[in-house]
Amino acid sequence: MAAAFDLQSHISDLTKCPICLEDYKDPKSLPCLHTFCLECLRSHGRDKLPGDEFLCPTCRNSCRIPEAGISAFPLNFFIYDLLQAQNSAKMATDDILHCEVCFEVCEEESVATPAATKYCVDCGQRVCEKCGKQHARMKAGAHLVVPLGEEMSKELFKSRKRHCEDHKDEILKLYCYDCKTNVCSLCVALKHKQHNFVEISEAANKLRKDIDDGVKAVSDCITNVHDLKHQRNAEKQKFLIESKQLEVVVKQRGEEKKKLIDDHVGNLLEELQAMQLNFSKETDCNMEKLDMTAVAMQSYINYSQTVTEKGNSSDITHAADELCTRASSLLQTDVLTENVQVPDVEFVPADNDQDLVGKNVDLIGRWSCGNGKGDY
Q: Residue of 55, 195, 248, 311 with fewest CB within 10 Å of its CB?
């Protein structure tokens, strides 16, 4: 019995839907060959309409939803047969199963259905001893009947026959090269008369070679894919390392320039503060002279008024010449004509960025003074 289940241990992964992670229910195949439960596909494309773009949940390959809807994606017969055989094998190990052929007859006649002991590979049905013998002696050709449970062997699974979807009683025996599909004898007579067709076994041998060639080509391409992946990763790592080095250079360059800017700003502010100090000193000195002149003038006024108001004629004539001379002297004092020039300072921003060479790099700008003293 262990040998009879040699296929079951290899198909558990094949029969699991990538979306729900359970055994397929009505497995549908997309053009990219990935298979999913019909309900899982409906849920994945619940907002899609016929003709809309549909992305495969696994590889994101794009296809169009058939006009009849998502349910019109083709059934994956290979997966479907695997599930049927797997389920039959599981049931055979768990419970006593009944003959599927006798079930309807026995149900109508209220007779107990005989136990299934055989499995017809051609019909995909569990049968009793009697029905098994009948299937093995079919007039149209003997069916392959094996002990129940052995249907999961690789050899028997490969030898199973599939019935035509259009003609349920007919076995698919021919392959139509024009339509690229399996057909039965009735299909040939009704729809494929002028087509090029051969027996399925003959076509399979040729197509198997084409598939093997495709597998080899894709396998060789996988090497290129891995090489490209390695190359891309190497390029990525190289770029990341180089970009880190550039980051260091940029930061260093920024710090150097920042220092030069800070130094330049400091120099400009020092120059401005020096101009402020010089002008303040000059203005203060001038105001002090003006204060002294004002005091002298007021003293003159006070003395002159005292002489004229309290002195006699002799006092006035005696002081007149001296007072007139003093008045002329006060009116001609230098402080009255001395001009304090207000600095005409203008900041001229730098026109462009220069190389960081030397100490007098004009990164910020310069002072321009219009008082005849030149630029700073």
A: 248
Characterize 69-78 residue by residue with b for buried, 16 or more Cβ atoms within 10 angstroms of its Cβ, and e for exposed.
ebeebeebee
Distance CA 329, CA 199 (A): 140
Reading the block at residue 110, the tokens are 């209220």
* Gap between the Cα atoms of 334 and 207, Å rounded: 120
Q: Which among 143, 162, 146 is positioned nearest to 154, based on CA atoms?
A: 146
Counting every residue, how long is the chain?
376
Instruction: Based on DSSP, count helices (H) and strands (E) in the chain, helices before strands.
Output: 9, 12
Q: How far apart are CA 319 and CA 311, in angstroms?
A: 10
Nearest to 90 by CA among 170, 19, 12, 174: 12
CA distances from 332 to 288, 293, 344 (A): 17, 11, 29
Torsion of CA 237, 242, 245, 249, to 10 degrees: -150
Between CA 178 and CA 176 the distance in angstroms is 5
Q: What is the pLDDT of residues 14-71, one digit of tens each?
A: 788 999 988 889 999 999 889 999 999 999 988 899 999 999 998 888 999 999 999 9
CA nearest neighbour of 141 among 157, 161, 166: 161
Residue 133: both structure tokens together: 């013998």
CA–CA separation, 236 vs 242, rounded Å?
10
